[in-house]
Specification:
This protein is mostly helical. The chain has 3 helices and no strands. The chain is elongated and about 50 Å long.
Length: 108
């Protein structure tokens, strides 16, 4: 139960990150360790921010779905797979999608 509460809070943070990125007027970074691109290097700042924000919101949804899936499954060996899958697989997808967005929106 504690796991579900903590992960629910984490999902809310992901939703918050997504909303802040969607509303930002300046280019956003993918994660906190990355510097955002310069405004003059981004072809369309609004779409760049929107796509990154949606990506974080979808990650929050994946976390919530993992919590719900875990509650449905209950105690079983599948529980670990569901929890890890809902956290780790979306991160890999997000990194790959971010690389695609760099190719599509960043002027070299």
């Amino acid at each position: 139960m504690i796991y579900c509460i903590v992960m629910g809070i984490c999902a809310m943070f992901m939703f918050g990150i997504g909303l802040v990125q969607i509303k930002s007027r300046k280019p956003v970074a993918f994660y906190s360790g990355e510097k955002p691109p310069l405004e003059e290097k981004v072809k369309d700042i609004e779409n760049w921010n929107k796509k990154h924000g949606i990506m974080w919101i979808l990650y929050g949804i994946a976390i919530v779905l993992g919590i719900l899936g875990g509650l449905i499954v209950g105690d079983s060996s599948l529980l670990v797979v569901i929890y890890c899958g809902s956290l780790l697989i979306p991160i890999v997808i997000m990194v790959l999608y971010h690389k695609k967005l760099i190719k599509d929106y960043i002027i070299e």
